[in-house]
Amino acid sequence: MNILSIETSCDDTGIAILEVENSKFPPDQINLKANLVSSQIEVHREWGGIVPHLAKREHQKNLIPVLKKSFQEADLKTEPFDFDSQKMKTVEEILEREEKLLADLRQFLQETGRPDIEFISVTCGPGLPPALWTGVNLARALSYYWSIPLIGVNHLEGHLVAPWITIDDLPADIFPSIFVLVSGGHTQIINARDFGQYEVLGETRDDAAGECFDKTARLLGLPYPGGPEISREAARWNQLSNQEKAAQPEEIKKIEFPRPMINSDDYDLSFSGLKTAVLYAHRQQKQEIIDHQYYVPKMAAEIQKSIIDVIIKKGLKAAREINAQHIFLNGGVAANKLLREEFKRKARQEGFQLFVPPFQFCTDNAAMIGLAGFYHYLQEDRDSWSDLKVNSTLRL
Question: Model's pTM, two decimal places?
Answer without folding.
Answer: 0.95
